[in-house]
Amino acid sequence: MKVEKIEGWVQQVIHHSGDFHVLRLYLAETREAITARGNLYGLLQVRYGTTIGLIGGWRKHPKYGRQFAIQSWFPCARKPEEVEGFLRTCIEGFTDRGVAENVASLGHEAFDKLAEGEGALQGLPLSPEALQGAVLGWSRAIAQRDLSGLLKSGGLGSADIQAAMMRFGMEAATVLRDNPYRLLEVLPDFPKVDRLAMNSGLSSEDPRRMEGAALWALREEARQGHLYLQRGEIQDVLHRLFRRNSLIALPDVPVDGAVQSLVDRDALVLEEGTGVYLPPFYEYERKSAELLASLLAPSDIDMDLGPFLDSYEKGNRIRLSDSQRQAVELLGQHRVLVLTGLPGTGKTTAVRALVRLFEEARVSFSLMAPTGIAAKRLAAVTSKDASTVHRALGYDGENWRLGPDNRYVVDAVIVDEMSMVDQELFYRLLSALRPETILVLVGDDAQLPSVGPGNVLRALVDSKVPHVRLTQIFRQSEKGEIVVNSHRIDRGEMPILAGVKEKSEFKFVRLTDEDRIVDLIVNMAEKLKSRDANFQVLSPKYDGPVGVNNLNEMLRDRLNPPGQKEWKYGDVMFRTGDRLMVVQNDYQRGVYNGDMGKLVRIGHDELVVKIHGIGPADPDVRVYFPFDVAGTRLKLAYAISVHKSQGSEFETVILPVVRSQGRMLQRNLLYTAVTRARKRVWLLGEEDAIRRAVNTNPVIQRNTVLARAIGVHMRDGRRPDAEAEGTSGKTQG
Hints:
Helices cover 38% and strands 21% of the residues. By secondary structure, it is of the alpha/beta class. A 7-stranded parallel sheet has the order 11-10-12-13-9-14-27, with helices on both faces. A hairpin with a 3-residue loop joins strand 20 and strand 21. Helix 19 packs antiparallel against helix 24 (667-674). The longest helix has 25 residues, at 128-152. It is globular and about 85 Å long.
């Protein structure tokens, strides 16, 4: 494509989404109207009448014909009124008409003067603050434009450009021209950055490439849950990553020099005796330990807890177990409590008792969970308001409103589903709490650990933080096979597998042909849907015949066959009536990762999804997703992964378990899957695969020293003598 420059004024903004624009442009030179499409990085907006220059080339669109493909833009306005219009519309810092008018009085020279800085504009009747804002706005626009030109050549997009601007500021383009691998300080995609660097002329043996690779190794291992790597591990990780991605090999030299260079410029943190961290993860882990230790002080609850517990039991017609009573009593002594237990051991009952304690002690409290669906469940079982941690702390997708400089004002906080809380979220929570806050952390440490790096709940259990583990099964007398089998799986014992005709909550269908398993799942789902049952198909993997992707297509074809209106976005296709899941928090629309819903309408430029609530206190709501948002926020949910199901509950769970699922056949994954069900579990597949999952119990060795760091901060103080394990008592869990 031959690169050209064109100049004109905007007749129509046909479409825009973020930086992407489709414009109808009237060309001054040829006096013709043309269509131009592409990204205008650095500009706030363009509108009718804007005079602008574009750099790019002509292409033939298969549907719309000849169009100008935009690569970049430049200012071409010459008349003062055109310059003023461009500045006011397109550039930050010129929304005040007086500023734009005065600068525009210089005509086309205004752009050169803005580039020279405030000194070149001193003759204008503007305040120093106005001059500074104008120059800053122009500089930012040009910096973002130039950066986009550099990064687009490597296939990077808008989000990458914004991340680089936030990290490197106005000098981003200069910094990255000198060393493209510095992009890996903010981006995880080494192959893409590597292509950019090679295209810019860097050698595969350039030392900066080794530095970038070291950053990549740490980011990739963070995706596996690790907060740090030992020095000796980095080289092995890189060999594996380079083979997997078919990249040009690195020089056969130790990575230590590259690591030290990164440490010297504060791109990595090296702690001798532990390992190498990306700086944010070091901060999250160590600050969390310090902040948690600062909360470990005597409780301010001034109540005689014996009479309270007796009254609570009598009023609710239950008998609390010794360990449940211990949990309440410990909270009368300490400000921090970790409460763990398997299904049916009474965690919910204990949380309700703690909520009642706070109410009677006139202690203000908040209930939180890491996901929207888990928060809804917490609200449903306590009959109290609950929210996600993110929403409670005012996270808007970029910034946290509450934190070290603006604390969350409440006397007590209870956080449920702590197994899902990663190291960063734990830090955000602790950094927002006042030192006198009471903190109760509830979870099941037999479940899968968090998707994000860290192993917070396990570290808390391994530390000396006050902890009560509930072990008594309260529902066993009701022959609850789901609860009994979940405990058997946790102990490494095979679950009791009932046949199809046997009376049991926990059924097993023996099949080896995966296509037959898929057919059976589809038939079962059709019957359950006809009864309006609350059910969910789960799978350990995304690929393969019984993987999430194939199951979604097969289930949709039966449960919501073609005939309804369809919408496509890249490889994504949704159909009116589809079952969908929100897969990214959307703070603007008030929906969160894990929320489930149904596509009820495909509009002109948006999808309308009915998000399901939990119970009368949480009704269904309609949420409107613009097309450009829907493609990344929503996924089909006829089948979902076991990981995505964490925090959710369903009446019936259907799970294929076959040997081809390989390394995903693990005890904690099987345990997490079956504990999502309240009334019925169906396992379909091979008994040998179930046995392999039960017997495969790799201790989740994630590189984290949170427990040790907590101990270091507690060492100078008095350790709370507060570890309890209870097995007695009789109540419902």
